[in-house]
Write a structure and sequence with these properties.
- The chain is an alpha/beta fold.
- It has a 5-stranded parallel sheet with strand order 2-1-3-4-5, sandwiched between helices.
- It folds into 2 domains: 102 residues, Response regulator (Rossmann fold, 3-Layer(aba) Sandwich); 57 residues, Orthogonal Bundle (Arc Repressor Mutant, subunit A).
- The chain is built from 7 helices and 5 strands.
- The N and C termini lie far apart (70 Å).
- Helix 5 packs across helix 7.
C-alpha cells in the first residue's frame, strides 16, 4: 500500500489565514499551499478577517491571536458562536490564560509559533473534526427543542378540545392527527389552528 502524497493532505480543504505580520502570513500561505490546501483568502486585521471569513465561508480559519481591529479570540468567538467554520488560533504564546480564553471562545485547535508543517496539518484536521462534532450537536439540540415545542403546542391544543368541546384526551389526540392527515399538514400546524380557533370539531 503506497503512502499518501505529503503534498496532497489538504486537497479540497479551504483555508483562510489572518495574520498581521506579512512575512509570517506569507510563510503560512506557502506552507498550506505546498500541502495542497486551498487558501481562499487572507487578511492582516481581525475585523477585516471576520468580514471576509463570513463572506467566503472557508472550512478552516487560522487566526493570529494578536491583530489590529479585533483580536483572534474576539473573531473566533463570533465565528464559533455561529458555527461558520473550524477555527485554529495561532500564537507565539502558550500561557494558560490565553489558552483558557481560546477554549472559552470555542476554538477547536491552538498552534504555537514557530509551527512545524506537519503540526499545522494535524491541528487543521483536529479543528475540522471538532467543528463537525459541534455542528452535529447543534442539529441534535435544535431537533430536541423543536420536538419539545411541538409537544407543548399539541398538549395546549388538546386542552382546548377537552375544555371547550368536551372531548377526552385520546379523542382530542385522534382529532388533531386525523385533521393533519386528511389535510396533509403537520400536526404542530393543526395544533396552532386549534389554538387560533380556525380548526374545531
Amino acid at each position: 500500500m503506497s503512502e499518501p502524497d505529503k503534498n496532497d493532505v489538504g486537497r479540497g480543504i479551504r483555508v483562510f489565514v489572518a495574520e498581521d505580520e506579512a512575512i509570517i502570513r506569507l510563510d503560512i500561505v506557502e506552507t498550506l499551499t505546498s500541502m495542497g490546501f486551498d487558501v481562499v483568502g487572507q487578511a492582516a486585521r481581525g475585523d477585516e478577517s471576520e468580514t471576509l471569513i463570513r463572506e467566503l465561508v472557508p472550512d478552516v480559519a487560522i487566526l493570529d491571536i494578536q491583530m489590529p481591529g479585533k483580536t483572534g479570540i474576539e473573531v473566533a468567538t463570533g465565528l464559533t458562536d455561529d458555527l461558520v467554520c473550524a477555527v485554529v488560533i495561532l500564537s507565539a504564546f502558550s500561557q494558560s490564560g490565553l489558552v483558557s480564553q481560546a477554549i472559552e471562545a470555542g476554538v477547536q485547535a491552538y498552534l504555537i509559533k514557530p509551527f512545524q508543517r506537519n503540526e499545522m496539518a494535524v491541528q487543521i484536521e483536529v479543528a475540522r473534526a471538532r467543528h463537525a462534532q459541534m455542528k452535529e450537536l447543534a442539529v441534535e439540540v435544535d431537533t430536541l427543542n423543536q420536538r419539545l415545542s411541538d409537544r407543548v403546542l399539541l398538549d395546549r391544543a388538546k386542552g382546548v378540545l377537552i375544555d371547550q368541546h368536551g372531548m377526552g384526551e385520546a379523542e382530542a389526540m385522534r382529532f388533531v392527527q386525523k385533521w393533519a392527515m386528511d389535510n396533509r399538514r403537520a400536526v404542530r400546524d393543526v395544533a396552532t389552528d386549534v389554538l387560533d380557533g380556525t380548526v374545531a370539531p
